[in-house]
Backbone:
């Protein structure tokens, strides 16, 4: 212990030695507290990520043997050293040098692979008073699994658990955590940031100053919780670490990934399936074209934040019909409902849980680098504290459960659900996603992906509450005609952007849908459905099945004829009243045109095309820009630079801040971009502000090569920004300043929208 004291000069040390020795003896003095008063205080947040030895009230150290722990160490060098990994606010795993955990089964060491609630400890600060005077401050430990307090009993200094009571026996429950050099402990497995951060990065700024950094205004961080939690493998975080968050995906994708219906067709040789191995080897995922694996683990988001990401919009999403299909395939594994309302609740809760988890890693409430914000003022304040501002939104096909078959989507109901969403922190909403709904018509998608949405959209407009209704004899008596409709496609109005490649649905059901039925035939419940007769119970009820043969040769594509409905008019006006951001991608042209009429009449700036899909429709784009609304872009850096230059040109007539945001759609069943063909990333490189130095990114045993892989995970947006900087250096456009002003432009747009709130 003496070796930890500072080492002054010889003469100073000689003079101070008696004082040091007295302090040392005092620190080693056993705690005598037969009459002490104990006050239990707040959780010990600040122990997070530190290296510690543990001592009891007799100053005896906790040591480990081959298969147990006990307080029997007389000297510090006998003590076990524990790395304290937060699992949530106030709770920790105690990870020793052999990779084991201190668990509630105190006579048995828990192996690393068995980390669970038995390994979690809630640790609280305690003040000990003797005759009214503070004697010492220490800690007390409570098992998270059964809320029983750790006690040290009898002269043998063994461990046991006893019920919590109000009169703490200090001699039994007092624990001293003594901090040791960080490199003395085994480091808990985690994804590296591969970044050296200057202390200047953490200096707080004036919230009144313009924000310097970029915005990503379209993400799906909560996607692992959508569709019953069985559509995407992995988690953004896990209380027990990366080995649990990014584990082998065979639990939901099956052996060799053969149950990965969204992705299996494009993987490997075309026979379906993929390698499932997760951390630390990542033989298949993450990758830029995955749609069913986590690519935005929280440490990867943090790396992007270090590269200049200052604001992120993340959106609740889901597909009720596909959720039901997956829930059957993953029977017993799916959790939660498939409705729009259940998706909104669960995915929003997940984001608040993520915020708390990051706070726990950084030492307590409010200390994390990520902050959910509900006003532009909160966004500025968070960014000034070097936090990533998160805006919550919704992009769900059946917003508020308002599909066409739901008769309760009245003005009062919609106003009530909108108020509930607002109270949950939601500020940005797509009235329509991939399906026609009660609010209006959708912008159709082409190809196989669009056909899947077409089919499930037809089901959401029908009278089928759940896909299992199709084989329920009671239901069949009343639902021989399931109702519902396919898209009503026809020629587009002049100036509209149509959709090309609308799939022939007969061909789709014969080809792509048969992939699902063939793969699912090995699952007992699904096999029963198929044996009952997929044509009888399902496909025959879809008649008439459209081929769109008469529309295939129309130049410029075709448009969905369903427009904005009266309840959609009410929703848009109520959103404006509340100062919420209106997302207009996914609206059919007829719906979009009517929505913009309302927005223009009310002179409202809070309108966003976060996919950037309006870039080919000059008239619509001008209507949004003239209001002070925002567009976004996505793609390789050279393409992004072209988008920024075009955006600057079109913004010249309008007196609003320049700043074209990114819309990555990360984890949104969407591929991520690569770099430019000639990109070379030379490590180390520095961030745009010069405060962060990045090295080659590696997670576990996998090193990621941006030049060849593109955005395999979200942390590689640091390399994407560096690639954009290289493009900027080679051109005379000066696009980097525009891009790094996109967070400021978003907040200014939000400020204008908030001025409309009533």
Residues:
């Amino acid at each position: 212990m003496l070796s930890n004291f500072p080492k002054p000069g010889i003469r100073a040390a000689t003079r101070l030695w008696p004082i040091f020795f007295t302090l040392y003896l005092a620190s080693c003095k056993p705690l005598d507290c037969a009459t002490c008063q104990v006050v239990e205080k707040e959780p010990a947040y600040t122990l997070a990520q530190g290296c510690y030895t543990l001592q009891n009230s007799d100053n005896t150290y906790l040591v480990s043997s081959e298969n147990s722990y006990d307080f029997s160490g007389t000297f510090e060098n006998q003590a076990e050293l524990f790395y304290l990994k937060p699992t949530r606010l106030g709770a920790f795993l105690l990870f020793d040098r052999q990779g084991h955990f201190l668990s509630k089964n105190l006579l048995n060491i828990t192996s690393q692979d068995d980390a669970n609630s038995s390994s979690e400890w809630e640790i609280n600060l305690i003040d000990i008073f003797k005759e009214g005077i503070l004697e010492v401050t220490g800690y007390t430990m409570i098992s998270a699994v059964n809320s029983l307090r750790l006690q040290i009993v009898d002269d043998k200094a063994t461990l046991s658990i006893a019920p919590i009571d109000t009169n703490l026996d200090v001699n039994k429950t007092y624990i001293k955590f003594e901090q040791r050099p960080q490199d003395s402990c085994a480091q808990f497995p985690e994804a590296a940031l591969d970044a050296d951060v200057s202390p200047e990065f953490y200096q707080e700024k004036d919230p009144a100053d313009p924000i310097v950094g970029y915005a990503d205004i379209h993400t799906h961080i909560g996607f692992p919780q959508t569709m019953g939690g069985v559509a995407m493998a992995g988690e953004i975080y896990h209380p027990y670490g990366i080995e649990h968050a990014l584990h082998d995906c065979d639990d939901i994708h099956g052996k060799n990934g053969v149950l990965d219906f969204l992705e299996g067709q494009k993987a490997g040789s075309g026979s379906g399936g993929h390698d499932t191995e997760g951390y630390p080897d990542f033989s298949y995922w993450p990758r830029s074209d995955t749609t069913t694996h986590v690519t935005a683990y929280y440490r990867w988001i943090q790396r992007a934040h270090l590269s200049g990401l200052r604001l992120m919009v993340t959106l609740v999403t889901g597909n009720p019909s596909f959720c039901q299909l997956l829930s059957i395939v993953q029977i017993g594994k799916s959790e939660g409902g498939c409705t729009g309302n259940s998706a909104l609740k669960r995915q929003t809760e997940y984001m608040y849980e993520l915020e708390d988890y990051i706070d726990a890693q950084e030492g307590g409430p409010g200390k994390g680098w990520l902050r959910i914000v509900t006003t532009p003022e909160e966004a500025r304040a968070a960014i000034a504290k070097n936090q990533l501002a998160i805006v919550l939104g919704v992009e769900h096909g059946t917003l508020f459960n308002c599909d066409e078959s739901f008769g309760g989507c009245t003005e009062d109901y919609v106003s009530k659900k909108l108020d509930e969403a607002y109270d949950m922190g939601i500020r940005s909403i797509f009235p329509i996603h991939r399906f026609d709904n009660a609010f209006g018509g959708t912008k159709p998608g082409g190809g196989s992906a669009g056909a899947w949405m077409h089919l499930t959209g037809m089901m959401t407009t029908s009278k089928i509450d759940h896909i299992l209704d199709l084989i329920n004899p009671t239901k069949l008596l009343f639902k021989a005609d399931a109702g519902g409709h396919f898209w009503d496609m026809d020629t587009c109005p002049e100036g509209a952007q149509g959709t090309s490649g609308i799939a022939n649905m007969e061909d789709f059901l014969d080809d792509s849908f048969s992939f699902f039925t063939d793969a699912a035939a090995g699952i007992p419940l699904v096999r029963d459905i198929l044996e009952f007769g997929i044509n009888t119970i399902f496909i025959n009820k879809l008649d008439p099945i459209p081929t769109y043969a008469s529309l295939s040769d129309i130049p410029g594509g075709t448009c969905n004829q369903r427009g904005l409905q009266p309840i959609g008019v009410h929703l848009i006006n109520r959103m404006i009243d509340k100062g919420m951001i209106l997302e207009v991608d996914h609206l059919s042209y007829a719906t979009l045109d009517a929505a913009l009429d309302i927005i223009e009449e009310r002179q409202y700036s809070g309108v966003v095309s976060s996919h950037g899909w309006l870039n080919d429709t000059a008239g619509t784009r001008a209507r949004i820009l003239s209001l002070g609304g925002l567009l976004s872009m996505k793609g390789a850096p050279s393409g992004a630079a072209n988008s920024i230059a075009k955006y600057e040109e079109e913004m010249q007539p309008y007196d609003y801040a320049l700043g074209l945001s990114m819309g990555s759609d990360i984890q949104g069943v969407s591929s991520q971009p690569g770099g430019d063909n000639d990109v070379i990333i030379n490590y180390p490189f520095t961030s745009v502000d010069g405060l962060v130095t990045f090295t080659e990114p590696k997670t576990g045993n996998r090193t990621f090569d941006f030049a060849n892989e593109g955005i395999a995970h979200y942390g590689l947006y640091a390399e994407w920004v560096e690639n954009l900087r290289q493009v900027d250096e080679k051109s005379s456009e000066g696009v980097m300043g525009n891009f790094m002003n996109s967070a400021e432009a978003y907040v200014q747009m939000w400020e204008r929208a908030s001025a409309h709130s009533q």
In short: Residues 1-27, 267-271 have pLDDT under 50 and may be disordered. The chain has four domains: 1-30, 34-184, 214-442+562-754, 447-560. The first helix runs from residue 10 to 28.
